[in-house]
Amino acid sequence: MAKKTAKETNPKRVAYEKQQQEKGETIIKWIMGVLIVLAICYAAYSIWLVA
What we know:
- The chain is 86% helix and 0% strand.
- The protein has 51 residues and is mainly α.
- The chain is rod-shaped and about 65 Å long.
């Protein structure tokens, strides 16, 4: 059986890593949402230019 490293046994570090991961996922979702909205706006603008 593998010996646990100090990083895995420190509960504060584990909780902090989990918190950081959740914040990171939230930020990624926001970035993707903004990119999708911008893509829709660009598509509408492109259609408006052609029409």
